[in-house]
Amino acid sequence: MNKIVKKLFLFGSSAMMSISLFSNLTTAFFASASVEVVLLGDANDDDELDMSDYVYIMQYLYGSVNPSSLQVTAMDINEDCIIDSTDASIIQYMILYDINPSHVYKELYVTPDNSGRYYYEHQCSSIDPTSYSLYYLSSVSTPNNNLSVSEQVVNRGMLLAPDERDYENINVVELSYGNNDTFIGSGFIIDNHVVATAAHCVYNSSGFIPDLKVNIYNSNGEVTNSNLLFSSDAEYIHIPKLYVDYLGSNPTIQDNYDYALIYVEDDLFQQGITGLTPWNIGIATTEFMNTNGLATTSGFRWYNNILARYYDEGNVLSITSDNHNLPALRITTNGTSFPGKSGGVLYYQSSYSSYYYRSAIAIVTGAADPQNGGNTWATKITPTLLKFYFHNYKLSNYS
Q1: SS3 of 134, please?
Q2: Contact 339, 299 (CB under 8 A)
Q3: What is the CATH number of the domain that holds 398?
Q4: Is residue 252 part of a domain?
Q5: Quick one: DSSP state of residue 112?
Q6: Domain that holds residue 365
Q7: Are residues 202 and 251 in the same domain?
């Protein structure tokens, strides 16, 4: 078909880029974008809807490509402002039943954060909690050739029947340390050896947390040794250098880099645990912040001497002037968060063809009133974090 996309106007100025990083991120969220005619589903921008668009979306959710704002807008075929497996599945359905795609006239989405960053890598066997090596991960780049996509990438995700319950998501894990298995927070499994969590769960002013363990339970509500399925020792911990740089000196900025990676010794999917799957990833666009969309947190909470899995739903809030929650990097909801849920998952659930798709869109990091429960703060999963978790060259050295 002929390309009919026509650029009509563009606001903004490159001069804004000379402002500080934090001003840039806030400005990018509120700046007007260009308005164009968009072919919904045309992820690779070739003016056709075919399986290559499905593959492109899955590549994007795996941190393998760097699309333009036009492509990001086109990926959101159901227009819920979340790029996830639902969009890819709709493309499959439309191709199967020969349904013509729609052209819409809309303002293009702001491209999610794709910045390069420095990280600290800590080997857990070290007796020095302050030891680390420094490395750099560049931004996700657009390859010059057509990337193939592995079966693991195409099939990853949480496709759930409508009657399935949250507590069956056993891939939200509990973190502990020491001989007494002292509870320190939550995390969630995103790859065979990789657990996502909050940086403050694994690092403090004394350094990296020693003797860190990842514990998998199969119970809703209270968890005890009787329903512990598996425990694995952390081998490496990775955190953003920016988190450490602002620790203590500027906590309002530090929160925006509160994410971490735990690499465990065991292959978590080779332990014979029924139902254990990696989390499907979704990317919440900045436009999602104005939708009042519903998101759910899942993590663990220590309350009245009981350790329990805890859930709460909340609507996303549009935050305009909170340095804890720069819109390009963070999500805030009016769901309740308590101490212990840090490092847990903030997920978005969409439905298609009688199934639910549950996608991790952020890492829970705190609350407005942590002692009594308050609005949930979370670090967005963006291409920057996808590079950190899925294309981190340091992890390929572990074997």
Answers
A1: strand
A2: no
A3: 2.40.10.10
A4: yes
A5: P
A6: 114-399
A7: yes
What DSSP state is assigned to residue 214? E
| Domain match, 22 and 163 both | no
Do 186 and 84 sit in the same domain of this protein? Answer: no
pTM greater than 0.85 = yes
Establish if 2 belongs to a structural domain. no
What is the CB neighbour count within 10 angstroms for residue 320? 11
Q: Which residue in 115, 107, 141, 108 sits closest to 22, CA to CA?
A: 115
Which of helix, strand or coil describes residue 72?
helix
* 6-18 tens-digit pLDDT: 332 222 333 233 2
Evaluate whether 271 touches 237 at the Cβ level (below 8 Å).
Answer: no
Phi, psi for 396 (deg, rounded to 5): -70, -15
87 pLDDT exceeds 70? yes
* Contact yes or no for 87/78 (Cβ under 8 A): yes
Task: Quickly tell me which residue has 């407005």 as its tokens.
Answer: 368
Amino acid at 199: A
Number of H helices, E strands in the chain: 8, 22
For position 92, which CATH number holds? 1.10.1330.10
- Count up the domains in the chain and report the number: 2
